Amino acid sequence: MVPEPYLVQGVKKETGDTYTLTLAPAGGGPAPAFAPGQFNMLYAFGVGEVPISISGDPGQPGPLVHTIRAVGAVTRALCRLKRGGVLGVRGPFGTPWPVDLAPGKDVVVIAGGLGLAPLRPAVYWLLNRRAELGNLELLYGARTPQDLLYRRELERWRGRFDFRVHVTVDAARGDWRGNVGVVTTVIPRMRFDPAHTLALVCGPEIMMRFTLQELVKAGVPPEQIFLSMERNMKCGVGLCGHCQWGPFFICKDGPVFALSRIQEWLGRREV
Amino acid sequence: MARSSLPPGAFVTLEIKDFQQLLEVLRRQGYLPVGPALRDGHFVYDEIASTADLPVGWTDEQEAGTFRLRSRGDQALFGYGVGQHSLKQFLFPPQRQLWQARREGAGWRVMIPEEEQPRYAFLGVRACDLAALEVQDRVFLQGTYKDPVYQERRAQALVVAVNCAARTCGTCFCVSMGTGPRATRGFDLALTEVVEGGHFLVVEVGTAAGGEVLAQVPHRLAAPEERQAGDRAVAATAAQMGRVLDTSGLKELLYRNYEHPRWDEVAGRCLTCGNCTMVCPTCFCHTLEDATDLTGAVAERRRRLDVCFTVDFSYLHGGSVRATPRSRYRQWLTHKLATWWDQFGCSGCVGCGRCLTWCPVAIDITEEVRAIRETEGLLKEK
Amino acid sequence: MDAIETILAAHPFFKDLAPRHLKVLAECASTVSFAAGEYLFRENEAATNFYVLYHGRVALEVVAGGRGPLTIRTVEAGEVLGWLWFTKPYHWRSEARALEVTRALALDVGEVARRCEADHELGYSLLKAYSHVLAVLFRVAFVQLLDIYGT
What we know:
Chain B is an alpha+beta fold. Chain B is built from 13 helices and 16 strands.
């Protein structure tokens, strides 16, 4: 399993330390198809590999999109690439968001921080099939307005009449006129029929745990709440043992899990 | 009496002097014989060329945290237990270059090392290590992605098992794990060495490949009393296991007790040295490392076995998920005895006892499990 | 029931209070409105009002030195803003700026305190509603402190 070289076609700075790269296979042709929620192992030549969720539109053949936060040696190397640079791609891997369960239901998508990156493909998919859904709501929380990803896109989505988009930050300076408050305080303002709702949640583990509590409290069945988990990954294909979380290999049993499947493990510490 | 092959299920008797012939037949057929040997006072697995390379006349005394080599006073070929080595290093090389990449144009060109994989003939494989092969087959060959080197070496390997007899079983508990001391499947040939009332080997044919090899070695059909002598020796081994592990409801027991105070107790002793993972025949966790040469033009990816007891094994977002030794010991034991079931449909433990013997502070997993089982719910969680 | 009582009766904070208690509270209340950008209160002013928002949105800001105010919470219609002190008066430690046209009831906290002393049933009902709001604020503040989006 060797990384395929991909050319950087474009780099967009999303926030102070987060960049969205648009990529295409160096050998030509379209990037392979993927399902929303899947990830690739991205390789910085000679430095290392990291798992990064795919952030593009699964319905459009064409460029591969990844949003990367520069936090370590590999991600910093990837974020330094410019147009024409090359990185390696292995994948796609992992279990996807169960968007096939969405038709006929209300769908709430709740993202925190960088968690909007793995959820964006699901949002594209859902908007593509908007007519088949009940209510469609997005709640996106970040630390400050400067940390919001995909701002222009968020504003476009907000402009739609059939998509309620709630954005909230933990603190704000200057001319932010939007909501300030933690994500969980906004959930009661969302419109959904809990018994017929599909919930997709992604963000820092603490944020997900609080969010899941609120959703369960509101009456959404755990079988219909899905989250995306993370652990240290090396091989990405279920052989090296690094991404284990109890009995689960995050790379192949996840990263997307139904809450009902992993509820007992969420409550365990240092597992 | 030379035949083209002996059928699976046949039992023959081999004279000790003819064991050498077995090695030669294997070499003629292109196998590389690997078997037990004595190095620096320890039993290892190594290439063997003759019967004399085996630890003839040696035995061991093993206890938790203890290994002692002893002279037997007889000429038994297989009168000892398992040492630090298992077969995993032959099938899954502990260190390996996976590929090399050289910058070329906009990208790079990958070179995958072309290696011819050795055809091993593993000799003297104890039933526990045979069970470990089966476990590792599930790990490396059952999933969507299989390890190609393990797959090829495993497919090519010939396995000559040995049923443990005439030895002490200090830390062994294969009986508790249902893996021994008799090898019941997965072998091409299985030997039982009889040292009382004669000295010979009773050989069971497991596969056609084994039968083909054995047919070329001088042998005779095993007489009933010879087979019975072998059976008695193996039964005697089964009766004197060094340890017992009660496996009833073990997965659920451990799942219920992730916060049992015993974990704190064992964490007070565990050095997180990782010896247990290195000697365990089923531990498979490995890591991938990328590096370049000094020019930065050539990169390589290497794979090496890893140890879940290290702090950075579970590194994520500026910290480790398993930050405490307590959580890391718990991870190893619960993986081995509990979550392995959900992952691979079997136990990760084969009862070989190596982790007891080679733990510098003599942690005994059978004792840890017993302590949790006996005090479940009785002690206040810290 | 006059206009103020109607607003109180419809407001989530007062949902468990008996009508006769709402009548008493209505007597401590006046209607206030703010244009976008107007301040409801400033740091160090006496916190004599307890605001019951029924229209609009307010940003709660902390003055944080030379870098301009930091908004730590936005308060919406249906929520409350302020301290119900029952002993000594408090002073505001933060500032509240209307983000859009905002209408609220301002309850005079001194008057409310006197009415609660006279009628302990009213006091107990009010305290129950208020302590729930405080508990939620506490929990939310914890989560903010955790800085969950940090590295």
